[in-house]
Design goal:
Helices cover about 50% and strands about 10% of the residues. It is mainly alpha-helical. Among the domains are: about 55-135, no CATH class; about 140-195, no CATH class. Strands 4-1-5 form a three-stranded antiparallel beta sheet. A two-stranded antiparallel sheet has the order 2-3. The relative contact order is 0.12.
Amino acid sequence: MDKIKQDLPEEESVQDTQADADAQQSLATEKPKRKGRTAKAATDAVEEKTAIKAIETLDPNATVCVRSGHDGTVRYRGKDGSLYIWERMGVEQFMTVAELRYIASAKSRYLSEGWLQVENPLVIEALQLERFCGNVLTLGEMEGIFDASVEEIAGKLAKAPSEQRRSVARMARQKILDGSLNRLDAIRAIEEALNVNLIER
């Protein structure tokens, strides 16, 4: 039995006031204290400017290949009402950069759960998609995990998003049935990582 559990300020304006003329004079003569800018803050600022520049260089109407990373059907209703359907894992659809930007800002679960995957490195960098996909298994990793070592299986599945964990469990059961997955050590590793029973004992 599958035991996987489903994971289903306003800026304030502050104005200083002085109680009397002496206080005003004191403030006027006091040198303002400035906090030093940390190296991290400077780096973050540079990265932000770089990302903004990269986004601006992308044509919002340019199309990008988007593949399904889900083992079932994925449906997505676009901002303009268009319906996109991916019937199975690996199926490709082409979406505009503008639509992907909308997904990243308003429907990011499609990315963070691995339902939709973008492989173009320029688009990933420009739209900062890596912030959603850090632990998402790529399509190659999804297929390759059944041939991976026990350590790799445990490590990758421990960090994978919940929907991908479910997909791996379903894929494993199908592979056991068709005989393409018969490694007992891999089966046990998947069972332990996902807290499921794949075979009867």
